[in-house]
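Project outcomes to date are best conveyed with an example. Our students and postdoctoral researchers have been running inverse folding experiments weekly, and each run begins with a structure described purely in C-alpha cells. The record below, which covers 510 residues, was selected by the lab manager from last quarter's runs and is presented without edits.
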C-alpha cells in the first residue's frame, strides 16, 4: 500500500510507521479493503511476518464486508473521539475479483444426489428431505431459488469462499445434520472387490491362531550377514540409502525377524513362546525385485514328550504337524477338492543351513519345496545368545496360494449304529502311521468311516514286543448311511484289513 511518494504498509499484513495514529493526529483516512488470500500468504511468508491481519486474509475474508466495516469504524471514532465525516464513501469494486467472490455463479443442488452421497439415515433420525436441505442451506446464508420439488439453485454467501461445488454444499448439509445420524453402511458408489488372496490369507491366519500361535510383526529389513545365511539362493536386494548397517537389505526371509522376536521374549523371562508372522520377502536382482508371500513360525519352551518321541524332538514334530495342518487347507486341483495336498507332501533331509544338521526337514509339494522346519542351528542360536532350543519353520505361501482352498463339505449324519473293530499289530519302528492309514483307506470300503491309532507301546525287555518294534492298536469305525451293518459284512472287511496289514509287514497280536 503506497501513496504518490512512498510505501505505507504491506497489504493485508501490517501497516507502516508513517501511517500510524499518534497524539498529534487530527485527520484520519479510513481504508477498508479486501485482499487476495494467495497474495497475502506469499507476502507474509516472504517477509517472515505472521500477523492477525494475515491470518484472517489468508483464509479469505468477506468481500461484501468492506463498506460495513468502514462505516462501523467511522461511527466508533466519532463516538469516542469526536469530529465529523468530511466526505462520502468512495467504493471501488474490481469486477474480476467480485466475480470470483461475492458474485459467484449459483450452484445447483439436487436432493436425490444429496441422499445418494450421504447414504441411509438411522432409523430414529429425521429423514433427509427437500425441506431439511432448504432449511439447512438457508441458515448457512445461501439464497435458494427452487427449480423443482427436489432441486434448488443456491446463491453462495460472500463470506464462504470455500464453497465452490455441489459436493461442498452436500458436505455442509451432512455437517449440520450430524454424521452420527447416518446408518453404518458402505457407499454404493464405491464398489468393493475382495483381494483374490484374502480368503486364503484369512484361512492360514485363523488356523495358526487356532493352534495357539500369536501373530507378530517384525522389520522389513535385514543385515548383509543375515542375507548371506537366509537368502537361500533368492538373491539380495540392497538399499541405496539404508537406515543402518543392520538394515542394509530388504529381508530375504522372515526367519531372522522371527528369531529376533523370540530372543526378545526370552530376554524378558518369557520361557515359552509360540509366534508366527505373515509377510513379504524379497529376492531377485536390483533391476527386477521379486516379492513373494511367506509365513515364519517359531516356538520355544518346555515341550512335553510323547510315546512316539522324546521331549527334545517335540518341537520338530509339532512343527511337522503344523505344516501338515496348513497344507491340508488347500486342494491339489480344482477337480479334486476333497483330496488333501498333504498326501503329496514328502519330508526330506535336504534342509537349509540355518537348521541343525539332522534336526530338520523340507516339505515338498509336487516335487517343489514349500516349507522348511526344524531346530535352529547351534551356531545361530549361540550368535543370538538364545539360552534354550528354538524351533522355526518357513512356508512359501505363494506356492500354497496357487492352489484353491479345500471346499468344506458336510453330509447328513447316519441314523444307523456305528460299529468299531480293533486290530492289534506289531510293526518295525521304521513303519509310520501315515503309511498304515493310507493302506487301509486304499481298500476303498465305502462304510469305513474312520481309522485311528488307539494305543502304541514298546516293551523295554522285549518280552511281548520284539526289539526295534512297536505294538499298535488300530481302531476302524464302520457305518452305513442306508442300513444296519451285518456281522458277515464286518467279518469280511476285518479279514481284508488283517490281510493288508500283514502284507505290509505287520504281525497280528492275539
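After processing, the design step wrote out the following sequence:
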Amino acid at each position: 500500500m503506497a501513496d504518490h511518494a512512498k510505501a505505507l504498509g504491506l497489504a493485508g499484513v501490517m501497516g507502516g510507521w508513517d501511517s500510524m495514529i499518534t497524539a498529534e493526529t487530527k485527520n484520519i483516512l479510513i481504508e477498508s479493503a479486501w485482499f487476495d488470500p494467495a497474495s497475502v500468504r506469499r507476502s507474509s511468508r516472504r517477509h517472515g511476518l505472521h500477523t492477525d491481519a494475515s491470518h484472517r486474509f489468508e483464509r479469505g475474508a468477506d468481500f461484501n464486508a468492506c463498506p460495513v466495516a468502514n462505516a462501523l469504524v467511522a461511527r466508533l471514532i466519532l463516538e469516542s473521539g469526536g469530529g465529523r465525516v468530511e466526505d462520502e464513501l468512495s467504493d471501488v469494486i474490481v469486477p474480476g475479483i467480485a466475480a470470483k467472490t461475492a458474485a459467484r455463479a449459483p450452484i445447483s443442488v439436487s436432493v436425490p444426489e444429496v441422499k445418494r452421497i450421504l447414504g441411509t439415515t438411522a432409523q430414529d433420525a429425521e429423514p433427509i428431505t427437500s425441506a431439511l436441505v432448504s432449511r439447512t442451506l438457508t441458515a448457512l446464508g445461501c439464497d435458494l431459488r427452487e427449480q423443482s420439488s427436489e432441486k434448488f439453485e443456491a446463491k453462495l454467501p460472500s463470506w464462504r469462499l470455500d464453497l465452490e461445488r455441489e459436493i461442498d454444499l452436500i458436505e455442509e448439509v451432512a455437517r449440520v445434520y450430524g454424521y452420527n445420524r447416518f446408518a453404518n453402511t458402505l457407499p454404493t458408489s464405491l464398489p468393493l472387490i475382495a483381494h483374490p488372496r484374502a480368503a486364503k490369507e484369512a484361512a492360514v491366519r485363523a488356523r495358526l491362531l487356532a493352534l495357539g500361535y500369536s501373530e507378530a510383526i517384525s522389520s522389513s529389513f535385514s543385515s548383509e550377514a543375515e542375507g548371506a545365511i537366509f537368502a537361500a539362493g533368492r538373491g539380495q536386494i540392497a538399499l541405496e540409502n539404508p537406515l543402518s548397517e543392520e538394515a542394509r537389505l530388504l529381508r530375504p526371509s522372515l526367519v531372522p525377524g522371527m528369531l529376533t522376536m523370540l530372543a526378545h521374549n526370552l530376554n524378558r523371562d518369557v520361557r515359552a513362546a509360540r509366534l508366527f508372522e505373515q509377510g513379504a520377502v524379497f529376492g531377485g536382482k536390483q533391476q527386477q525385485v521379486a516379492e513373494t508371500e511367506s509365513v515364519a513360525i517359531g516356538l520355544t519352551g518346555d515341550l512335553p514328550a510323547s510315546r512316539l518321541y522324546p521331549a527334545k524332538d517335540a518341537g520338530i514334530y509339532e512343527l511337522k504337524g503344523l505344516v501338515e495342518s496348513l497344507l491340508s487347507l488347500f486342494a491339489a486341483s480344482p477337480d479334486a477338492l476333497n483330496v488333501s495336498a498333504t498326501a503329496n507332501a514328502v519330508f526330506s533331509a535336504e534342509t537349509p543351513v540355518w537348521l541343525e544338521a539332522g534336526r530338520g526337514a523340507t516339505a515338498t509339494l509336487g516335487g517343489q519345496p514349500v516349507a522348511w522346519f526344524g531346530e535352529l542351528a547351534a551356531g545361530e542360536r549361540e550368535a543370538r545368545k538364545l539360552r534354550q532350543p528354538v524351533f522355526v519353520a518357513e512356508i512359501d505361501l505363494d506356492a500354497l496360494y496357487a492352489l484353491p482352498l479345500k471346499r468344506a463339505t458336510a453330509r447328513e449324519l447316519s441314523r444307523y449304529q456305528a460299529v468299531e473293530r480293533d486290530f492289534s499289530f506289531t510293526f518295525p519302528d521304521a513303519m509310520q502311521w501315515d503309511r498304515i492309514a493310507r493302506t487301509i483307506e486304499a481298500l476303498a470300503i465305502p462304510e469305513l468311516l474312520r481309522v485311528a491309532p488307539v494305543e502304541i507301546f514298546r516293551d523295554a525287555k522285549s518280552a511281548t514286543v520284539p526289539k526295534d518294534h512297536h505294538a499298535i492298536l488300530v481302531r476302524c469305525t464302520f457305518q452305513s448311511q442306508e442300513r444296519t451293518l451285518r456281522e458277515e459284512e464286518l467279518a469280511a472287511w476285518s479279514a481284508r484289513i488283517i490281510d493288508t496289514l500283514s502284507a505290509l509287514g505287520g504281525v497280528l497280536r492275539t
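The domain at 107-181 is CATH 3.30.56.10 (Phenylalanyl-tRNA Synthetase; Chain B, domain 1). Residues 333-346 have pLDDT under 50 and may be disordered. The training component of this project remains on track.
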